[in-house]
Amino acid sequence: MSGTISEITDLFSRLATDLELLNLPEINDRQQSLDLSISKINQSLNLIDHSHNTVLDTLLSLMCYTAPQVFESTIEYLVNTIVAVLSSSVACEVFRIQKSEFLRIGCGFSCQDSASLLEGSIDILAKLRGNGGFKEVCISSLHSYDDAERLSHLLVTAVVKSVSLASLFLYGQDMLPILDERLSDSSSSHVADLLKYLPNDVSFKDEQIPLRLLLWNVDPMILKNDVSRILQDYTCRPFLSCRMEFYHRMDWRMIVVCLVLSPTIFIETCALLHKWFLLTGSASVLDLQSQLISTLLDVLSRPMWWGLSEKIGLKLSFPCAYFPHDPNLLKTLSGPLSCEAFQKLLAYHMDKPKCRHRSSEATAIDVLEISLINYKSPWALAMNFPDWFFLASSLLFAEKDFVNHICCKDKQVDDNEHVCCSAGQAARYITWLLNPINEHNQELLCKGLTRISETWVLKKFSSQASCVKKVKKAKLYKDTNNLEYDVKTIQLWLREFNDMYIECRDSNSRGNLLFRRIPLGIVIGFSGRVSEDECLLLLHYAATGKIWDSGSSTNLGQGREAVAGAGLVFYLSDVVENMSDSLFDEPDTATSFVSRFKLRASRYLFNCVKRIIKMENGEEGDGFIMLRDLQNRLMRWRCLGLEVFKGSSDLDNVLAALHHKLSS
C-alpha cells in the first residue's frame, strides 16, 4: 500500500476537511446536523461529488448514530489510513536505470518533498490538539479527548519516522540519482513547529527510538536550539542546580537520554559546546559541558534510576564510545582522585607535542595549536573534570598531612618525595590547563606558581610564629582555632599572586577565571586552618577578581558580585562533595570534610545572600526566579554534610528574609 507524496497529501486534505466541520457553528436543529454529517461521510465513502445514494443515510438514521460519532469514526479511519500509507512507504528495493542497479532504502520521496508532508501534518495536529477539536465538540463522549491525543501521537510518530527516512537522492525517469541532502527552509520551519507535539516523557514503548532523536538527524539546528535553550536557562539563572535539573525537568532529562542513546550526536554536542567556550570563554558554557558529561556517565552507570528499562540499559554503549579520542585518559579522569592517577595525567600530558615558539612560517604551528585545543584534544577533556583542577590547587599549597593521606591510598613512598613532587606536579598540571599551547609560557607560570606556593608557606609559618613557638601538627580533619592566619598577610599574598599572573600571562591563555580559582585550593585543603575572614578574602577574589580591602565584611561590591560570590560557594560545595567521596574511604571523615568547608564559607555566603535580598527587582535578571532558585539551593546546602547549622540563627534569618521577599 505504498503511496506517493501526492497521494499522502491528498489524504491530509481530506482529513483537514473533515476536521473543519468540527469547528462549524452549532446547528440548532439536531436533525440538520445529523443530515449534514451523514451526507459528508456518504460523499467520502462513495468518492463521487454528486452521489444520490440514500441507502447509507437511511441506515445511519435507523441506527441512531450522532454526528460527533460519525465524524469520530471518519477521522480515526483516515488517520489510521495515513499512518498505514506512511509506514508502507518505507521499503528496501533495487531498481535499474541505464543498465545500472541502485539500492534504495527508506521512503519513496525525497527530502525536498518533505515540506508538503510536514505542512499537512502540522495543520492536522493543530486541529486535533491546538484548537480544541474533539475536546469541545464530543463532550458527550468521555474518551474523545484521549482519542484525539492517541491519534495525534500516532500521526506525529509516523510523520517523524517518514521524514527521517526520506531519501537523500532525487530520482527521475532515465536519470541517475542526484544527491540532494539539503533541507529546504520551509521544511526546517515545519520541523521546528513539529516539536511542540512531541512527548516529553522518557518512556520507551516497544523500545522505539525517541522522536526528538530522529528530528535531530533530520535537522541539526533542532539539536543546536535545544542545547542553546538549556545554556540560556542555565546562564540566566545563576543558582540553578544543573545536576538536579537534568533529572527532575522532564524536557531536560529527555534531551540527556537522547544524547546517551546516540554517541555520535553526543560527540557533536560536546564539540558545539567546546566551540562556544573557545569563542566566549564563558564559565557557564564550561560548567554546563562538565555537568553534561558527568550526567552521561551517571546514566551509563545506573540507567534504571534515570527511567530506562533494564533491557535498554544493557544495550547502552560503553563510555569509550562517547569519548573515542582518548579512552585511557577518560578512564583516569573519571576514576577516583589519587596521587597515582594524578601522576598518570601528568605523564599523559608530557608525552603530547607542544608549541614551543612562533615562527614566520606559522602554518604548521597553527595546525598544531588547533590540535592542542580542539574538542578532540586531551586538554578539552581534562577541562570537563574540574575535580582534578581543585585537587591540584589543594596539592599546590598542601601540607604533608593532606598529601600523605592521598598518597597512602596508592602505595607508601617517602614523605619528602611526596611534598617535593606534589607542589611541582600540581603547578605543571594547572599551567597546562591555563595555557595548553605555549610551552614557554607554561614554564613561566609553573615557576611563578611554585614560587607563590613557597611564599604562602613562609607567610603562613611567619604568622604562626608570632603566636606560638612550637605547634604540634594537627590532623586534616580536626579544627584548630589557634592556627588562624593573619588577614592582612593574606591580602598582601593575594596581591603578589595577582601580580605574578599579570607578569606571566600570555595572550593565548584561556582567561583569568581559572587562575582566580587557584587559591581556592587553600579553602579546600585548609578549611579547618583558615578563619572565616581569610576564607572570605579567598572566595571573594575567586568570584570577582578583586581583593577585598575593607574593615566591613558586608561591603562585598554590587549585586552582580554578590550573585557571583553566592554562586561560587554553591559550585564549590558540589566540588567538595564530589572530592570527599573519592578522597576518603570512611563516610564520617568525608562528611566532616564537607562540613568544615561549609562552616568556613558560610559567612561569605550569608553576606552575599543578604546583599542579593536587598537588590531591586530586575537589577540582576529575573529577580523572583533567581530568589526562588537561591532559596532551593540554601535548603539543599543546609542538609549537605553534618547538621552544623542546626539551630543557626544566621541561616534561619537568611531563609526567613528570602521567604518574606518572595511573598511580598
What does this structure look like?
- The chain has four domains: 5-180, no CATH class; 205-318, no CATH class; 325-527, no CATH class; 550-581 and 599-664, no CATH class.
- It is elongated.
- With 664 residues, the protein is mainly α.
- Helix content is 65%, strand content 3%.
- A two-stranded antiparallel sheet has the order 1-2. The protein has a two-stranded antiparallel ribbon with strand order 3-4.
Shape summary: elongated
Q: Give the helix tally.
A: 32
Spatial extent as radius of gyration = 32 Å
Average pLDDT number: 76
Can you tell me the residue ranges where pLDDT is under 50 for at least 5 consecutive residues?
Answer: 24-31, 45-53, 131-143, 357-362, 412-420, 465-484
Helical residue percent band: 55-70%
Strand content: under 5%
Outline the biggest β-sheet: 2 strands, antiparallel
Distance between the termini: 64 Å
